[in-house]
Design a protein that fits this description.
By secondary structure, the protein is α+β, with helices and mostly antiparallel strands. It contains 33 helices and 66 strands. The protein is globular, with a radius of gyration of 36 Å. It holds the Pfam family NPHP3_N.
Length: 1258
Amino acid sequence: MENLKILLAVSEVSEDDLSFYSDRRMPETCSWILSNPIYHAWMESLLNSQTLWINGSAGSGKSMLTSFLIDHYRHQGLSCYYYFFRSGDRIQRCINTFLRTLAFQLAQNNLIYKQYLEELFEIGVRFEKSDAKSTWQRLFASASTRLATMIPIFIFIDGLDESDSPQTILNLLSSASTNIPLRLVVVSRPTSAIAANFDKFPRTMPVTRLSAESTKHDIPLFVEQELQSLHGDEPFRRQVIEQIINAASGNFLWVHLATQEVLDCQTQEEIEQVLQEIPTGMLPLYEQMEDAMVRNLRPADQRLSKALLTWVTCSQRPLLLEELSKAVEPDFPHIIDLNYTIGHICGHLLVIDRKSRVTLVHQTAREYLTKLSTGPFAIKSSKAHEDLFLRCMSCLCDQKLRSRLGHGNLPPLSSYAAWSWSFHLQSHAAGSERILTALSAFLQSPSALTWIQILAMQDQLRTLVHSSRSLSAFADRRRVLDASVAPNLRPIQTLEVLDLWAVDLVKIVGRFGQKLLDMPDTIFKFIPQFCPQESIIHRQFGRRSAFTVSFSGGSNTAWDDSLAKLFVGANAQALTIKCAGNCFAVLTTANKIIIWDSITCIKQQELSQQENILAMCISTSGKRIAAFAQGSVRIYETSSGKQLQLITHTNGSRSLAMAFSHDGSEILVGSDDGTIRTRSLDDPDARWHEVELRMSEHEATFAGATTSNPCSIAFSPDGSQVAVAFRGAPLSVWGLGDQRLVSRCRRSQADRRFASARPWTAANNVLWHPQSGEVIGIYQDATVFRWDPLEHSSHDLPLNNATAIALSPDGELLATSDANGAVRISRFPDFGPIWLLRCDYPVADLAFSPDNKRLYDIRGSFCNIWEPNSLVRLFDLEAPGSEARSESGITMMSATMSEAEADISEPIFALAAAPDGDYICVGNTEGAVRLLTRSGEVAVDMWQSSNFMPVEQITWSMDGCHIALCDIGGTVIVKRIERVGSSTAVGEMSVKLVFEATSNPDDGPLEQLLLNQQASLLLLSSAASAQVWSIESGSCISRWESKDANATNKWIQHPCQPDQLLRIGAEKAYQCGWQSLVERSVLSFNLPDPHEQPSAPRTDRIRKPSLPRSMSSEDTNAVVDKAILTHDGAHIMVEVTRFLEGRRSERQLMIFSKTEFDGNRSFVSPRPLPLPLLGKLQLPLDVLPKNTFVFLDNDNWLCSWHLGSTDGTTGIERHFFLPRGWLNAECLELCTMVASGDLIVPKDGEIAMITSDLAFQW
């Protein structure tokens, strides 16, 4: 169940609450309900589902009765599920917490439902930050078949009136499927709002009302038990009992407090006086208790009591005894026994449960202290929240706090302070100078980073988003208050700091959330440096470390909404995008489907086949992807690229829509010939089932309609209906089961452009709303509309000039793009604007991520991933009890729409650093080549491809004075660089063209360029051949051709012989002359036996764990990916991919000492690398001085390891990580380590130079 706890983010609070009430319940009490005729009739009813509403006034013992029924049902062997709402705990009164807890309890007793939740966990779904409506839909509505049973499901809900929204809860429960025999027991106060909601319950779930006032029969038993220890003779004890019972008026809470008052007395006369003075009703009783505390407590004890009551009343959640002691410690140090103290000075207003949590005796006590009391213990909420906020700040600003975190010793109250200071800030008016001063000092000190570290350690990063909202709201309130204050007296700079932190907190969660969870102290070491230079966290903390990040072109100065930009290929255009589970896929014009990991943005697979792929779809889990082509449908496994099924078809139509059925057992295809084809995926012998969607002659000619083929098709979420748009006919919906025309879309009279226009408009693009059953689409006049096929109602939306649309998985967001390339996200169904992106490049398709927090768009050759602040806030603001939620469960966002602008820059396609690392030469996909300095400034615009073709290869000469480069068209040039002295200043160098040629197209694309040490010779290498050209004469002087068409090679300068080359293959190295390319000797690699079991003990492991095999390497056994002379000048590093059976591949790393190649040898052996090291290795980079092997690990950390060490685990040293938004396949291939130990990383058409402590190792 541990995975389900993570999925649902649940704790054991409900079990604790049940134990709390069960422990306090007196024996024999509450049993009256079992013989109550109303309850008995409800229990014996034969109806499938029904509701029992037990209602009673405050303090009437309702929660005790709930605990009795739960214990009774359990004793009878019946499964029951329960939840206790508590207004004093923001988490426990949250609707989402209730739904997640209920789901967890159901999974404990329902194996089928448990398996359903485990499937959600496997595809990466998490519910901690989901809104109530989405949580209900995913956990219960979509799982109704998994919950269907013949045995009634008993659900007890106590304290419904104390929840954030009783209306929302009852609306959700009343919509439960009739397939589920639900016996619902709701316990609450008899409010008119709850009564009105019960009146609206469907007939399939009738409501029976039962008053909890019958608990008055239990009061004598309760009083008898409580006063057993009362001293005095029996007649006097009986007299006391009778007086309390007669004055109780059915209120258990009153009885409890009255008996405690009596038990505190020492003499019979004192008891008689108490009984005479004790008032009836809760308000007079509380007033008397407060008066008694004033009379009986010393001034110091009164102050302590007031402090304890204030903390318990106004805290965001119940505090533990040790937390409460720490909270009051500054004013009341050295409390000997707080448990004892509470019992003696707090007048029975506080109680302590078995988990040492301190709470008020009842909700009415909070109402009295904060609203009704006029005495010395009255709590002024605004002042109380100010004091609690300041105490939280004091706790977090403790100078010793960070060091204690390092020792795993988190002081009491630190967690509460980290989670709750923003709650107290939001609960206070903005006029307090004490709050503003403390907040400013906190945010401008390292304590702010310590706070973030605490939240990361406790997996509570969503608190950063809540805090962002609190800071913004506080700053806005303060500006309103200061409107009448002279400008020179306003705290303008301080409020700007709050605004900047509000932005940074959300961005930190989006960009670095996973890294913070994995290693919380990265907030100190690295994250400030990766933040933009104008961000407040970088300005305050990013310049205090030897670790630095600098960008070319002046980029990374401010936050933007772009998370990543992925390149689909130089000669390809992106056509459509699909997202599901933990992956997203793009279909391109190059007849490929590229699949990326949605978390890391790393390419997982690249699928291609001989037939043209016309359409694709992904299963709900994201585990399978289907590709439709002329003549076949192929089903692949997304993780491995393995083909699972090949399904042939003979129709020559084009697929307009394709989907897996809801349970994944069928594939559905909608074609442009007007036919829907379905086929079972479970039966290998199954055939295609065809449904022709043909309108009758009368229907086809309706109001000017003409018979035409479909132009857009969309399947409903459950696969039972299909929406079909025609070019010359109205949008229509058919039922697939009965093949019946359900409805045609009529445009309302008010929405028609002309009064005499026909009653329909053809649609170009349609999709189904995932929840409401509506169809959303774009008319041919580019107007977006919504249409309910069952209600026969349609409405134009205030969104015009639309070209593409997408709905979020929960149906609460609508994204549209226009002809100018702008993208807009709006709320659904009110269409309030949330985010607007302005971009000049047109959009081909849009899609939301499964968690609703990202938007993908495809433009030309790019897939852009956007993560706007507004989306992060929207879906992370499901705070327990958040006032950001409306009664319907939809987040109410600010009316202000955030806007962004995007510059779609051309990505870097080739990169090479000078040998000394002072200059970096980069080429982009438009054929532009620039020479950059280490600081990122453009030193020289080197070259521009005449045909704007991507630059594919760049290489430097060993003396750093020549650069050779080529584009994909085969144009090759060499330029000489002339520097003025040793300066690297911009403008103090020139470049001169010294060589230009064009490669032979018959040789294939150039894969490598190499200059000799004197830069007099240039090697051009393709897959099957190589040539050496003279730079001076511009002629080809030698040529080599491969004898093995499937072999791949890389060429490097011989490390010991300046006039020779090494041609590196997968199994051997060939020593060749520079002038002639003639082989002079062959060196075989002494490799481990490929058939040896991986578990066999060896010390010369060089293989990495196997990976999914690329589909582009069917006929190749091995590919040499990289061969370089390392920066230490002492090693040759070779990386090879070997292809195995079962479409798997194995990446092999070999590091040779250069001395292996000096002399007459026939074999060379790579250095041994331990298995733990290879298991963590993602990208080998280089070997630096002192045998320092540098690489990126699987978590994108730059690491170093000493060659020759046998420790492949603890011997690895991590230096820094790369943000996830920086990384994709192209980025990883171009990451370059320079001799100084700095790392060059391409990003968004520019480069980042990262300096760390790596150089200090030698």
